[in-house]
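Example record for the data management plan.
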Amino acid sequence: MKKKILLPTDFSRNSWNAMQYAIELYKNEACDFYVLNAFNATGYALESMMVPEPGEKLYDEAKQKSEKGLGKIMERLSFRDQYPNHKFFMVSQFNSLLEAIKELVDKEDIQMIIMGTKGTTASRDVIFGSNAVSVMEKSRSCPVMAIPEEANYKDLKEIVFPTDYRMNFKRRELQDIMDAAELSNAAIRILYASNGDPLDNDQENNKKLLDESFEGLPHTFHTLSNVDPKSAVRCFVESRESDMIAFFNRKHSFFGSIFSRPMVKSLGRYAKVPVLALHDLRN
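Corresponding structural encoding:
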């Protein structure tokens, strides 16, 4: 069965890099890639009652710019035809990025969104731009893989999966991590940041369920003691040169503490490691 992957673009270098990463990651899979550019007309707020219509100068100019940019991408992609099992569809839409993504995910039954971590306007000090954070938090019906500008594709060797063992995952919720691991035979490293207390019964049961769910895939359990989750992930990823971080985006959880607030330089290797944001299907 074909994979359907959404690739949002603002024509920045980061979004092109994310596209290249996606193509290489799925090089052995039959895929339909939807390259989406959401445009609006400068001078109009999208929530304003005065929305420009087709035929109006501002609308037509913005649409022409969008379609021209997508045309250039299609041209660049046509030179890289080494994967005949890949098809590309260009989508230009007058909308906010988030709403355009939600609409296309629903319409085309998209299975994965892969995008850059920041766009044309993000400052150098920001690792995760506002668009990436917004899509990762609010596009809840589809997993989101965010690719930093510095991340060059290489076959995944290991995916770090931080957890506090408080959530009893269903196997279908873990399927996207397993799929990512299977793409290049990567190992899954389950990471727990301990405050020094032993796991309680619920945590032990959830750990056992994870072990059963990942049966057949290379996976190992790791504990770092007396360190906060953010530092634990950073130290683990840096010391092992891990290739990806996968986590469940629950409200008021790990995600909020690391990615939503302005980035601090101490995050180091997060600037280079792709992040796979998954969603708790019960939220």
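Summary line stored alongside the record: Residues 252-256, 259-269 have pLDDT under 50 and may be disordered.
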